[in-house]
Every structure is written in structure tokens, then in C-alpha cells.
Amino acid sequence: MRILAVTLAFLLLAEASLTARPLDGPAIISAFEGNIVVGAYADGLAFRETYAAGGGISYWDPRSSAIGTWSVVNNLFCTFYENMEGACFRIEQIGANCFDFLAAADTQEQALTPHSNPRYTARGYVIGRTQTCPDELQA
What we know:
The protein is α+β, with helices and mostly antiparallel strands and 139 residues long. It has a single domain, classed as Lipocalin. 20% of the residues lie in helices and 45% in strands. It has three helices and nine strands, in the order αβαβββββββαβ. It has an eight-stranded antiparallel beta barrel. A hairpin with a 5-residue loop joins strand 6 and strand 7. The longest helix has 16 residues, at 2-17. It is globular, with a radius of gyration of 16 Å.
């Protein structure tokens, strides 16, 4: 019985640590500006992005790489590239250093209007900090 209680307490603690907290614009900037984020898309494809101070971005995945710009519009994190599509994402922090990216708008103009039903796109964490994502990065 004691083992069951300890197991249940552990599961509840693990579930609580994955409670999503949407980030606002200043929190997004604080989390990502000047940092490198690595993660995986919903389909398991790995990615790595460097978010430079001032809005520059460098992207890599096993299939492609790109440069572009990032910005925050209406509490959405927007990433657009010179040679591939981009989008604006709601960022949900699910751990001290674990973030879900939910696609909410295809353009910065769309980001200015209320956004509903964003779709899960990827999960990642900032390099150089203790990673707190589940073993499998995708949700």
C-alpha cells in the first residue's frame, strides 16, 4: 500500500510539472533572446534555433537550414525565414526549461487579431540550462 501511495504521489508531481503556462511577450523575450533552443517537432524531427539579440535567427534541422528574423507580436513568438515558411506561435512553458510551440498565425498580420485553437507544433528547451522536458520531447 505504501508503494502505491508513493507511486501515486510521484505521478501527481510529474503531472503538475507539465502544467502549461502561456508566456506573454516579455517572458518570451526573456526566455529566448540570445539563446539556442533545441527540440523536436510533433513528428519527431529534431531542430535547433539560435535567437540572436535584436531579432536575428539561425535555424537548422536534418533536412534544411535557414536564417531570418524573430519577433513578438501580440504575445506570440513569430519566426520568419529567407528561404522557408515561418509562423507565429503561442509559447507554453511546461517546465522550468521546457517550452511547447503552438502554431497560432501564419503571418504577423494574422497575429494582431485574436487567435484561438493553436495547434501543437514542437517542444524544446534552452541549451546551457538544466533541461526539464520529458524524455520524449514531442507531446
